[in-house]
Amino acid sequence: MYRLTVTRKAAQCFLGSLTLGTVPSLHLSARSVFSPAVIRPHLRPQRSLAPPLCAFSTATATPVAMAATDKPVEKFRKDYKPSPYLISTVHLDFQLNEESTLVQSKLRIVPNHAESSPVSLFLNGHADVVLESIRVNGADLEASHYAADAQGLTIKSGLPSGEWDLEIATRIKPQENTSLEGLYRSGGMFCSQCEAEGFRHITYFLDRPDVMAKYTSRIEADKAKYPVLLSNGNLVDQGDLEGGRHFTVWEDPFVKPCYLFALVAGDLAVQEDTFRTMSGKDVALRIYTDAHNTSKVAFAMQSLKRAMKWDEETFGLEYDLDLFNIVAVDDFNMGAMENKSLNLFNSRLVLATPDTATDADFGRIEGVVGHEYFHNWTGNRVTCRDWFQLTLKEGLTVYRDQEFSADLNSRGVKRVEDVARLRAAQFPEDAGPLAHAIRPDSVIKMDNFYTATVYEKGAEVVRLYEALLGRAGFRAGLDLYFARHDGGAVTCDDFRAAMADASGADLGGLEGWYARAGTPRVEVGVEHDAGAGTLTVTATQAPPVLTARGGGGDDGRAGDAQAGEQGDSPPPLLIPIRLGLLGADGAQQPLHLRSGPGPDPAGGSEAVLRLEHQRQTWVFERVPARPVPSVLRGFSAPVRLTVRGQSREDLLFLLAHDADAFNRWEAAQRLGTALVLERYGAAVADGAGDGAEARAARAAGEADAGLADALRALLADPRLDGQFKAHALALPDLAELVPEVPGADPLLLHHVREAAARALAAALRPELERAARDNSDPPGAPYEFEAGACARRALKNAALGALARLGGEGVTQDLLARFRAATNMTDEAAALAALDRIGGKVRQEALDAFYAKWKHEPLVLLKWIAMQAASNLPGNTAAVRTLMQHEAVKLSNPNTCYSLFLAFARSPVNFHAADGSGYEFMADSVLQIDQINHQVAARMVGVFNSWRNYDAERGALMTAALRRMASANGISANVYEIVTKALP
Ligand code: BES
Ligand code: ZN
């Protein structure tokens, strides 16, 4: 299957698109860079210049260097203190102009400390914010009372006691803002992005999520250029002004932290709909886009209505305002943002038609629209006390969007996809130098903590509650959470307490999941006693294996950074293990638990075992014959599982029979992994001096007959979902295989994987041809994004992709014909990807034809960019450097960068080229992009984090690239944090 790009967010999200936004001027402000001397990693720690009333005190124990303004200061979770002041109301006034924007803010300040006289007040700010005036209770404040610098504004004296009004005027230049945080321009419009700490780029403020206020926002701008002026809440006033200007006033009745503030001004077209809530209220739904894109929002609108309905039905959660707006923005660092009643979306997650978007794109749009909508309760009505608690809203909301998509589509397939992503992105992160707990203990740049761990592992941790409490118990816990905390800013501990209190369950064993990094290991063994008719299940848990930051073993490679088995083991975790037993006929056996913790399944076919000690045993009765156990069904906990004594036959049996779709797929993955690793070993042992490809081909030999037979049976099973079959056919991703091989040669591993896939395709050729034929739509069939149709396309395209590995004139011609005749992007992109695999002249012709057809659709061109960047043609790095000059490539646009650079890093042949040219290209690009957008550059530099997984030569080349970046002039704090943590 064609994959648009890369991993989610350094991981997560979405990533990978392109857009037509205008190119913001390159802004190389001297104020936002470091001087070269200050970024050496081992400088003596520096104290922060932040005033003492700042929420977090400064690191003294960790070597952190100093910069001119963008100071890498490490902040610690343990240092949380409530703010000495709160803000009850905020009145904002924006005068938008082409040269600059005047922001006037009036804050009602409320003391929140026990001192008898006023303490000083520190408001966060940024070097780009220019202070124009400051007034206290209506009178200008004397200059001696306050001081402003690049970090913020301190009012040291002259503060009234009790509540008071603070008025601040600042001037900013959104048109020069290429960082895309705070207020900036994209295309012809003004838009904002304030999470996590962007509001301080707009005005001086208590920029922390536990300061929640009621907002009124007035926006004034030229009416012809910016007919649409939006902010949060309800429109309460609007009118025309002199000089062709106009204004709107918005009032948000709900208290919120400033990270949820949003502003949009532009010449936008709107599509409207309505949703009637469960209590009978009509909500106006509006999606704003550039005029030429209005035809592409129907699916997003439908997804929004489905999300609103689903949240009512599933969690009893109703929308709370009379309107809900979504705006599509071309230049956007992330996927989308949940600002109260004014969600901002990366265009690529809103705009979709069958001819421009793939099934995967539609699925992503549905999920992200749901995700941001669901934040209205999990994030907005109840928010985070501090940013260390980010997983409180993100882990929970990812869990909710996963469930939403599972309910609307195929649950089994969704679970497989989510776990595959977790393993490909989060497991490596959690075993590498940037491993952190889902609730981190310290942070330099908060932007760097929107990670696969906080999001995906965080969602898995929420899923643990569901596994332990059941659906009803989980729902009761969530109900109590809202009852207790609506309107509040709370912690992960508050969430766990609500879950425990609502159910009466002991959930203390979940604490460690928040506090510790790394993937825990679990081993399960079963022993059958034929005489007694019992099955004894034993489970043990062991702490994660982490790669030490700063060197583990003698060679600085894999080591155990945790208190390991030798030292004091951390207290055991609570781990739910979902289990079933299969009889000789493949049917599920009824379960009768004799003893041990966990509810007796009482004859049901599934048990959830509560593993909460280091080692535990359960005895099942009335088990006359040895069953095949199906362990950790549905991936009931994010652990690395070993099933002791599990044979190849057991796995083939599970693949053929397991009622649990996830474990069926898992069996195929385990068989595939074993196959590739065994053949990789043979290729390494092959003494011939020829290239990796030749050695891989010899080692791969014939297909594994057992696996081929099992997959053949799977393909023939009419009851199975086509998407599921497509997933089962795929060998594990390279990202999952690499960590299994100490000191992996990525090139050889890639070629072995390819050769093994080719051998499997050859063995299954007739079945693949049939699958491609039987699942092809008749010419002119309408496209539908619907489970059955998606399943047919998925299987057909997986089969075509596999056949492309075999090559041959017949296959090539068939693919070319399909490419030309395709009537939807799913089939067109899949055919293009297959032709890309075939290479040569057809590849180039297809790419050229694709460009000619889609050159006016920037989102489609993202696919074209990513496909070329990820190519495994030897020497493609030079082609990618050339591609950077193409008119379709706009480096100020994050989607373009993700499609270009993160896709490139997925090419084992070129990123990992033995001469280091791929690493050099990537490092050059990181430094170039860091001058434009720190957040994007920091995402890009993450591709070097895995250097310890590779052979010594590559490890040395990758660390050399990291060192070069670390010592380059003027890198951002964002990039600084990642490179210094990644280095030994
Ligand atoms: N709150 C985030 C967006 C965000 C994160 C903005 C960090 C600024 C900084 C939003 O809810 C989110 O999580 N978006 C995801 C997509 C989601 C489906 C996981 C994203 O942007 O990748
Ligand atoms: Zn989110």
Automatic annotation (TrEMBL):
Residue ranges annotated for the Peptidase M1 membrane alanine aminopeptidase domain, each copy included: 299-508
GO biological process: proteolysis
Residue intervals of the Peptidase M1 alanyl aminopeptidase C-terminal domain: 649-983
Region (Disordered): 544-570
Keywords: Aminopeptidase, Hydrolase, Metal-binding, Metalloprotease, Protease, Zinc
Residues covered by the Aminopeptidase N-like N-terminal domain: 92-260
Lineage: Eukaryota, Viridiplantae, Chlorophyta, core chlorophytes, Trebouxiophyceae
Keyword Isomerase: no
Gene Ontology MF terms: aminopeptidase activity; metallopeptidase activity; zinc ion binding
Name of the protein in its database record: Aminopeptidase N
UniProt cofactor(s): Zn(2+)
Segments passing through the bilayer: none
